[in-house]
Design brief:
alpha+beta, nine-stranded antiparallel sheet, four-stranded antiparallel sheet, 5 helices, 13 strands
């Protein structure tokens, strides 16, 4: 409003100034008042937007708020390890030795396949080893005799070479038979699927009498290691500088109303392409099983621990 009044006054005084110029002497020249210096855009906008009669106020510059020192990080707990068990050899499921939700130890048998075919293969392989051993013994004896005769120059070198070749072939045949026997025994052992680590069986995916295939593999069960949980938290790029391996945190689980003190175990150095946030991993010991996988969690920096560390 005030700018409009100034503009109107300037327009009304323009004719008078022009008349004074025309009537003046050659050496006397009228001059227009000097224009005031231009003000910054922000100040001009502040003047125009003032209420009528209100004093002019200088424009204020907006400041960016600093990042909060108590920013809350959110995430979900996950099993430290999760495995889908598959058969190593194909067969028919004979026994299921677990139930869903059951805790199992490393080395516990979980699934047993029918073993009849594999037992026969073991017997066949063992018979092959016996035959190969007999052939090797005969070839070794013949080779030793021919070497003695050749030392007395009783036979030609060609005859010794021929017997030596038979001896080497028998030796290789025995080694191959032993490998086949080892493979047969391993296949028999693989008809039982064992638990690879202490875990909880979360899903049973097969039943007795069904075929367990290897191509494509048939899933048998899903196990999860819950004695140690991984809490994956999402951190904004502006907060990443305040978080490192060993940073103390206070983790709250709203569903169970629990507060747990923990430290950052790992920091993933690359950002999530979708959210542009970074992932940090907090390992939570859970030997008593009070925490569950899939729980929503909120974490914040442990200010008390930070203060104690700064005081040292």
């Amino acid at each position: 409003m005030r700018a409009r009044v100034v503009l109107a006054c300037a327009l009304l005084s323009l004719p008078a100034l022009m008349a004074a110029t025309a009537c003046g002497k050659g050496d006397a020249k009228a001059s227009l008042p000097a224009e005031p210096p231009a003000r910054p855009i922000a100040e001009r906008l502040a003047v125009v937007t003032n209420e009528p009669g209100a004093p002019e106020q200088p424009a204020k510059t907006a400041l960016r708020a600093p990042a909060s020192s108590n920013a809350t990080l959110t995430g979900t707990t996950e099993p430290h390890r999760r495995s889908t068990l598959m058969p190593v050899v194909p067969g028919i499921v004979d026994k299921i030795l677990f139930a869903e939700g059951q805790s199992v130890k490393a080395g516990d048998p979980l699934v047993v396949l029918k073993t009849e075919d594999f037992v026969l293969r073991v017997r066949q392989a063992e018979a092959g080893v016996e035959a190969a051993t007999a052939q090797y013994d005969a070839a070794a004896l013949a080779y030793e005799r021919m070497r003695n005769l050749r030392g007395k120059e009783a036979i030609a070198q060609g005859q010794l070479d021929q017997v030596e070749a038979g001896y080497k072939a028998a030796k290789a045949g025995l080694s191959n038979a032993k490998v086949m026997s080892d493979m047969a025994h391993k296949a028999l052992h693989d008809t039982t699927i064992y638990c690879p680590y202490d875990a909880v069986v979360t899903h049973r995916l097969i039943s007795e009498g069904e075929s367990a295939l290897t191509m494509p593999p048939s899933p048998l069960a899903v196990i999860e290691q819950t004695g140690l949980l991984d809490l994956k938290l999402q951190v904004a790029a502006t907060e990443l500088g305040r978080v490192a391996v060993g940073t103390p945190l206070i983790v709250r689980f709203p569903a169970t109303n629990q507060d747990v003190k923990a430290t950052v175990s790992y920091v993933v150095p690359s950002a999530n392409p979708g959210s542009r946030t970074f992932t940090i991993i907090v390992e939570l010991p859970n030997a008593d099983g009070t925490l569950k996988a899939g729980l929503y969690a909120e974490a914040r920096l442990d200010s008390g621990a930070h203060a104690a560390e700064a005081a040292r």
